[in-house]
Amino acid sequence: MKKLLVPSMLLLSLSLIFYAGCGGDTPESLAKNHIETANSAVRVKDFKTAIEEYKTAIEIDPGNALAHYDLAYLLETEFKNYEEAIIHYRMALEHSPDQYRFLYKSIAKIYYDQEKYDDALLAYRKAVAILPNDSLAHNDYGAVLIKKGMIKEAIEEFEKAIKIDPSDETPQKNRDKAYVLLNESHEEKKE
């Protein structure tokens, strides 16, 4: 029994020494270091390095929602790489849905700006379901509904936005424009 115990203790001691020598770095802490390096690179506008560092963080810790979010935001805003940005926004949502639920609006806005109104419609529908008290989400959803010719539904969304934030004039103006469009469509049907 003593013969087995000594080698086992030696192996355990060597493992602990090796682990301590490695700094005990977990994938999460290694990824965090790369995210911090990436954030420093962003501050000095070294976006290429930032992209590489965010991607390295994701390789180390694929479930790191912050790395996915930061990478997506940089891809969207600095590189106009919308397709890859959406992928990483979705990954951030997958790994931390409560913290990043606002990203449905970001995804929807990208689709809207690219005139992919069907995709924008689905994303905004999800956004207002998850963020029912977000005036901007309702307003923007209304704007997509207008683009899809769904004017009555758009007016309802603008009304919701106004109810949530009566001080914001944008949904009020959009609602008024929608009523004009609705009246024009009724006039065309009469003729």
Summarize this structure as a short list of keywords or feature phrases.
single chain, 191 residues, mainly alpha, Serine Threonine Protein Phosphatase 5, Tetratricopeptide repeat, 2 domains, 80% helix
Beta content: under 5%
Largest sheet: none
Structural class: mainly alpha
Q: Quick one: CATH class of the largest domain?
A: Mainly Alpha
Question: How is this structure best described in words?
Answer:
With 191 residues, the chain is an all-alpha fold. The chain folds into 2 domains: 26-100, Tetratricopeptide repeat domain (Serine Threonine Protein Phosphatase 5, Tetratricopeptide repeat, Alpha Horseshoe); 104-191, Tetratricopeptide repeat domain (Serine Threonine Protein Phosphatase 5, Tetratricopeptide repeat, Alpha Horseshoe), CATH 1.25.40. It contains 10 helices and no strands. Helix 4 (65-77) packs antiparallel against helix 5 (82-95), helix 6 packs antiparallel against helix 7 (117-130) and helix 9 packs antiparallel against helix 10 (169-190). The radius of gyration is 25 Å and the shape is elongated.
